[in-house]
Amino acid sequence: MFGQKKFSDVNEVLNRRLEEKKALVAVHRGAWGGNIVENTIPSFHLSLEMGGDIFECDLSSSTDGILYVFHDGGEPLLLGCPDNIKTMSSQKIEQMEYKNSLGEPSGVKVERYENVAAHFTGDVLYNIDRAWDCLPQMVKVLRKYPHTLRQVIIKTPVTEEYLEFFSSCPEKYMYMPIVYNMEEVNKVLSYSNINTVGMEVIAKTNDSELFMQENLDYIRSHDLYVWANVITLAGHGRLRLFGDLDDDMALLESRDRSWGEVLRKGIDILQTDWPLQLCKFRDAYFK
User: From residue 200, how far is each of 45, 170, 179 by CA, in Å?
Assistant: First the structure.
């Protein structure tokens, strides 16, 4: 028995939201532009205002153990700095200022994750991504804010280390492993003491194992949700995460041929950079 039933008290908000909406929209790093910077509290609020059901955030740790909401690797673009944030002290990080979408000073500072954990309460759902190298620090913060137990969906790649961590963790946070093939799917299924609510499937082409309908159905047959990324990480199809079904196709060619096909494949959660447009399409699709 997995997630939704075994740990139904923890998963109540997620399960209820999916029952109500049939498919959920997750917003990549919040909704941002101009002086509203990705991975900040204002960007997360805007993503929810646009209709998003889940916002996604990334965590990075300073050298002195403070968690910040930041996707490392984006320092040159966002901070005008060549150094990785994980090599910086909290003192240095908090002296830095984000650049806005024009490359000008935004007046915005990098957000401590603890501020996000304290700020969002109630039925707000969010996904913590890119935190697998600081899981003990993350859980330490989560324990200070018990309401997060029913809110956060945590992702990691599939390794013995991460699976053992969540198996032994006394708090059964919602877990969404990132899987690339059926071997990884079955590895996760071998752990019964983890609150696995679903799996994020990576399928870089239409020939990928986890784009095949029978394998998606296999995951869902274990009472698990399937999360797919329709975000486009590089232009001209160079870096897609769910076959050729992505935001670019939806916005520039046909929403039904892209997002509609994702929904017809039974995907439960779609991660996007365009929440307003996808939410409107989703609502009309299920009307």
Answer: 24, 23, 6
pTM of the model: 0.96
Residue 176 near residue 198, CB atoms below 8 Å: yes
Burial class (CB within 10 angstroms; exposed 0-12, middle 13-18, buried 19+) of 251: middle
Residues β-bridged to residue 282? none
Average pLDDT estimate for 231-256: 89
CA distance 101 to 43: 13
CA distance 11 to 215: 24
State CA 155 to chain mean position distance: 7
Topology classification of domain 3-56+115-285: TIM Barrel (3.20.20)
What is the pLDDT, as a whole number, of residue 1? 46
Domain boundaries, the chain: 3-56+115-285
pLDDT tens digit sequence for 39-93: 999 999 999 999 999 999 999 999 999 999 999 999 999 999 999 999 999 999 9
Which residue do the tokens 């990884």 mark?
184
